[in-house]
Amino acid sequence: MRAYASGLLWFLGICGIAALAVVFIRRSWPPDRRADTHDVLSVVFSMTGTLYAVVAAFVFIDVWQIGNDARDATYREAQAVQSVAWAAESGPPEVRAAIHLLSRAYLREILDQELPRLRAGKPVGEQGWALLNDLREATARVPVPPESESPEATVHAVMQAREDRLALADKRIGDVTWFALLFGALLAGMPILFFRFDHIGTQLAMTTAVVGMITLLLFTIHQIERPFTSTERVPPTAYQNVVLRLDALNT
Question: One matching Pfam family, short form (predicted)?
């Protein structure tokens, strides 16, 4: 809900500034004096708008893919933990119980500690790695049937998925890209402020529509740039489901 309110405030604020700029420019430079610049501005607006749309589309696709990859990483990690617990069924009862306990503790660490820290932009700490190391040591005591994958190898799959998740959590589009987006937005939206409209209402409507759309696009990119900052983008469903399965396995 905060994202919607923040987005609306940005939209109204930028559109308000653009509207004030239109009024100021019309008073300083009346439309009837711009006849010789209208055609040039139309070409510039078309060219810069097209180029900016292409750049923004590539950036949007990139950050959207980061979110998809982060969500996939959570499912790979959760499923690998579940596979470790299932592979422990062939081990001694005390080892099996220890692996189930460590698997559940690791998932609870992610749900209760790591995901909230990732949403807040904080380091996740080392407790998760410590639990994985304990899990690896416990799975080393599970006998491996011939031609079967050892539980210890499955723990390495958990570690790989964990590394992928943490790497994607820190992935950004970069300051240079943001500079291109912001400066490009200025270049793409500025020409419409100087168009020769006979009626101010028409110019205000066109200007706020263009500026508002650019604002919403930039705000959306900013919101989805960090996939773990929103429970809607990367929900904890994968970990929650595996916790429920482990609880059912122990009953």
Answer: Bestrophin-like
